[in-house]
Amino acid sequence: MKQEAERWGLFELELNGPCSGNPFVDVDLTAEFKYNNRVLRPDGFYDGEGRYKIRFMPDTAATWTYRTRSNIAELDGISGEFVCVEAGEGNHGPVCVSNQYHFAYADGSPHFSFGTTCYAWTHQREDLQEQTLATLKSGPFNKIRMCIFPKHYDYNLVDPADYAFQGSVSGGWDFRRFNHVFFANLERRILDLQQLGIEADIILFHPYDRWGFSTMDRESDDFYLRYVVARLAAFRNIWWSMANEHDLMRAKKTEDWDHYFQLVQELDPYQHLRSNHNWQGFYDHGKPWVTHCSIQHPDLLRVKEWRNLYRKPVVVDECCYEGNINHDWGNITAQELVRRFWEAAVRGGYAGHGETYVHPGDILWWSHGGELHGDSAERISFLRSIMEEGPGGGIDPLPMTMLDGGAGKAGEYYLYYYGNQRPAFKKLILPPDHDYRIEIIDTWNMTITAVQELVRGDYRVELPNKQYMALRITVVNSSRTSIACGKQGERSLRIF
Amino acid sequence: MKQEAERWGLFELELNGPCSGNPFVDVDLTAEFKYNNRVLRPDGFYDGEGRYKIRFMPDTAATWTYRTRSNIAELDGISGEFVCVEAGEGNHGPVCVSNQYHFAYADGSPHFSFGTTCYAWTHQREDLQEQTLATLKSGPFNKIRMCIFPKHYDYNLVDPADYAFQGSVSGGWDFRRFNHVFFANLERRILDLQQLGIEADIILFHPYDRWGFSTMDRESDDFYLRYVVARLAAFRNIWWSMANEHDLMRAKKTEDWDHYFQLVQELDPYQHLRSNHNWQGFYDHGKPWVTHCSIQHPDLLRVKEWRNLYRKPVVVDECCYEGNINHDWGNITAQELVRRFWEAAVRGGYAGHGETYVHPGDILWWSHGGELHGDSAERISFLRSIMEEGPGGGIDPLPMTMLDGGAGKAGEYYLYYYGNQRPAFKKLILPPDHDYRIEIIDTWNMTITAVQELVRGDYRVELPNKQYMALRITVVNSSRTSIACGKQGERSLRIF
């Protein structure tokens, strides 16, 4: 039993208890963790072989006390304390919504979402899982969409080694008994991701199923969700995705999703981010238990519309994948995927990556992980660096014409992007009394070129007459002009 | 006075009458043209210098009689007859809606719409107008969007030689007196287009105005429309576009457009096609006086949605222009414009062309005409030839996934297109008992390659793993299998 944990780290209380009957069903276990007036009550869970665990993520560096409750005498009333020390290096806490349309870590550091997708990577053989981690380590991604249940689909016909439930393909599943071996691997991988600074966007349900996990009844779904939240909620890098393509799960209705959302909201002491990913029909992201939009859509020009509609962060985590497979969602070019990332960024949203190249061994990043073969990741990394150099609170859409994208922070920072557009020039009307740094960004070739030292007044920017260019304009408050900076009714920057 | 006209040609009755007062206002003139029970009553118009004209487009090869009516005695009760002979070569009559979502000429020949845009070409100097016609002659276009009123906008700051109204820039305009010199040139150009087999999509109003033509009052608008219809309706290659970007004409409301549509519908004896082109907000194309959708929108994947909504032909005559000017609607690549044409085609719709390259003399095809500098026109020509080789009644959308485009005529002809998609292969499930010709079309390089002689049963098509490829699949009813072709419940062709 650890007696110390770091802030947003994992404190785990392990207890021994009964292993007869069905402990998953028979044993109730919870604990109350207290620091001053702050009280959190995570559920415990049965981990097999007579082991019971209660996991807790402290959010304040202080001495916390705890006391268990159980219907089993030997697990009830166990109390103690532990010291929560300050967060270690690289630990910024869980990601939360910040500044309405953006994200930040609990310690206030910005989190610009650059996700990828490897639905079934933890269901692959050990060496492939390790390769996935190695790829992630050198890549630009800080979120990964991944399923608890295995995937049945084209290119996904091999049974995994372990399943969330006890049972077998031939003999069927016991939806009231979980497989702790499966969860131990899943948790190990979540911690591996945490080490890499990557959020695990955990997909709780999905339709690509030949085992019956997508058609369990309501009670089994609830039982499963309670167990998963008890096991995983204390990992700081968890996001909850109710489903991948909820609208393809014909057995579930909107009320079911409402219910699952609310159940997870009730159970999760830390209120990790919650979303529900669509196929063709959006779940109503405006509902109060939804923290952000998780969208599948190929048209990133609509990000602004979705921001306005739902008033929440917009993450288009599926906007087609770089690749060349036969399916229409999995065969765009790297140029096109990178374009979609930029179109989202300059409308105040976030896109997501995936890769689906035909592979002799049918190992496709989008589901299996492994290696990346494409050209988009390094450009996504470049965009990420651009975003991280910009305002920490994120950038919001500027008044623009329909097709040009532009976002920024008025009076400070402006980022314009021309993806399918390729203007030979743009005219800038720069509000007076400031100097401006104007940089031309080639988003594909990853170059940044300042047009001249500093610019003042109106200016015509010559552009290289090709696709995928961006303009970054930064206001420089020279000392001579600093007095005028904050004045009311200042003209806004215009570009046309 | 001609005593003969060809079917869908122009019969013009010229009369002399008063030139004192204001004949445009004072004189009412109409005529009744009869053949058996068929009676048409076109309005006449004052052509200046004491000349009055009544124009008539006969639609039946027969002897027609006519008799004028006027409030002026010398113009009233004039009667006569003329012989309408069969249409000459290249004269297929006016274009009408056919097969609900498509077009055909009055003689039944298909019309696949491949339009371009030269808003103000007839307002340019003579040699430029001639150059425009020469360019059109060798190009793929069979429709042109063009304005009656001159254009005021970036790159459009030169006053034209003539205006529709009498008056002057300095002295103002008389909205009750038309300028016959202006109309004579316009009509000459409409006839030039007719000779080239090009429909003149006449834009009656538009917002880009510094002369006051966009803000005339209702009575002046009506007066203008009556005159224009009287002059132009008898040209078989006229289409009526109520406006370019009606929603940018702040002085006009939806009721105004309803009224203008209905007035033109009432006045035009031949019921030429009528539409209303949007900027950002569509006019309701479902209204009964609208014959087809005329749409500005960059996303051609939505053609199917608009077909389903309006149940009429969808012409996206503005989907951004090939070019490199600063404005976001005028700087896409040729590849992208050609892609948009194809995306529309394989969803049962029609796209439109325009070109806006920066030019040292500010002569941009989109408004001035002149020469084409881009690379899209020849690919549009290639698409036109593909369409003309297909079913004459047009092709309609097939059941498809969201992004792949496919249209055809079930059991006969299938055209699939992968624009941003670039699958390395596609799997075909071909209904049995037929042979299929499968051709791979490189829409950019304009090649057509048959995959092998004929295919039967399931088939995997290997594709060259690049953008802008199409598949054309034609059913070949070999004699052995012809009996099975029409059978009920036949499996449909599937592709994935």
TrEMBL record, chains A, B:
InterPro entries: Apiosidase-like_cat_dom, DUF5060, DUF5605, GH, Ig-like_fold. Residues 99-360 form the Apiosidase-like catalytic domain. Residues 407-474 form the DUF5605 domain. Residues 5-71 form the DUF5060 domain. It holds the Pfam family DUF5605. PANTHER family: DUF4038 DOMAIN-CONTAINING PROTEIN, LMO1036 PROTEIN. This is DUF5060 domain-containing protein. It comes from Paenibacillus borealis.
